[in-house]
Design brief:
Number of strands: 20
Radius of gyration: 22 Å
Largest sheet: 7 strands, mixed
Distance between the termini: 61 Å
Helix content: 25-40%
Number of domains: 3
Number of helices: 10
Order of helices and strands: EHEEEEEHEEEHHEEEEHEHEHEHEHEHEE
Shape: globular
CATH topology of the largest domain: Rossmann fold
CATH superfamily of the largest domain: Vaccinia Virus protein VP39
Strand order of the largest sheet: 16-15-14-17-18-20-19
CATH class of the largest domain: Alpha Beta
Structural class: alpha/beta
Strand content: 25-35%
Length: 383
Amino acid sequence: MDIHLKRSLRKSIKRGHPWVYKDAIELKKPLKSKTEFVLLKDNKGLVSLGIYDSTSPIAFRALDFNPLKTNELEQELMRAFKKRSSLKDTKTDGYRLINGEGDGFSGLICDVYNQVAVLQFDGEGMEDFWRKTEVSKLLLKNFENLKTVLIKPRGGVGDLETVCGEELKDFDVLFCESGLKFKANLLKGQKTGFFFDQRDNRNYIKSFAKDKSLLNAFSYTGGFSVYAGAAEANKVFSLDLSPGAVSDAKDNWLLNDLDPEKHETLCEDAFDFFEKSDSKFDSVIVDPPSMSSSQKTKSKAVQKYIDLFSKASKRVNKQGDLVLSSCSSQITFEDFNDIITEALSSAQKKGKVLRVSGQGLDHPYPHFCPELRYLKFVHIVLD
């Protein structure tokens, strides 16, 4: 089926932007189903192959291949895996195999936890389009280690669905990352269960955590904490509001045979902790959940970041490490730099930036779509 552009977007799409919104598209005839594989055209001819989704504001998603052909679908799946081949050498069997637009599978992600793959779709239309059973069978066919393929509803609302393979008796799964052991609860955990996008930054923490006291705020299940412990930090504190998360952080620490005397969990609100506590640490990591989901909420989110980071900086010892992160896609790297500047100014602090980074290699994004470069990570040594 053909659909047509009402706006002059050829150049943008040809350069690599993967989306066209509904108000920029004209349908010559109605769709047969909610989603269809289509040819996007303008007055010059063909612009792109892609998906038309009548259920989403993002009406067109560009593709580089025809996913209706099983051989092309399988080839692209293996191409995605090849991008991650270097992870084999790092004793890692937990990673993101498919990262939506960054791997050419717009609207689909797949996270691998050792023998279990978890699929998530960007809305009802994408779940219909990507033929979950066929994708799942290809995963089991091409990855011998995989035993089960699940679907987890986006936002965590609803039950897990086993599409192919063995039924899980327990939703707590074990996997390795950089030689360290972790468990994730696929049913109750945030996202698919774990945040693989911070892997490179967790490894970086090991480079300076030795012999230090470290506070991991918004610790979730203790990813940064375990890496700091493996680096022989003197004492690590995992701070999170969720009792389940701090319990899992404790379990992940013990899974790696780390000294339980060197790890303390704090189940409380990080904003309240930074407001009321007078404790200081050699290193403070602040990695909050997304505070902005739209442009409407961005200004409030910016102020919350400034307030949070300002208070956190006051809990860092002199010449200590302040590590700040944001996963809010509405907050750009330029925004984040401005936020940090305002936060340190408010706290009357100065520092030197040692590292600025983002998501790991298993979270690629189209070069012409910087809004999908969502993860910001900055390490500052305070004066």
